[in-house]
Each structure stands twice: as C-alpha cells, then as structure tokens.
Amino acid sequence: MKRGTLEAYKQTFLIPTKLIGCRAVYLSRATQERADFVVRRLGDRGANLSSFVECIVRAHLEDYAEEIEEWRKL
Asked: What InterPro entries does the record point to (predicted)?
C-alpha cells in the first residue's frame, strides 16, 4: 500500500468484510472511539469497526509474517 493516499487506505482498511466464526476483541474506550471516528469519517457505506479491526490485524500479520515465524522458533 502506498502511504498517504486516501483511496489506498480505504482499499486496505475500510473494505466491508463478512466475518464468520467471530470472536470478541476488547479495545480501550479511547482506542475504540478513535477507530470508530476513522470508520465513520473515511469509510464508505457498509464500513464498520469490526471489519476495520479485522483488516488492520490481517495487514499486520502479513507484514510481519517472516519475523513472526522466526521468533516462533526461538
């Protein structure tokens, strides 16, 4: 993703995602409010906080996949 473009950000993090087999994830109130603000202000119709968090975690796990695999072996 090219940083700095709204369209790239939306395509990476604000795509509505159908979540199956959901599990609860807890955020502090402050983090939840900030994230919800981003979704409401920048997201298109159908964007929601759960999809936003799902996309963030997926991107993180993908970005750090090699490092996580190496650290797992320690």
From this structure: DUF3408
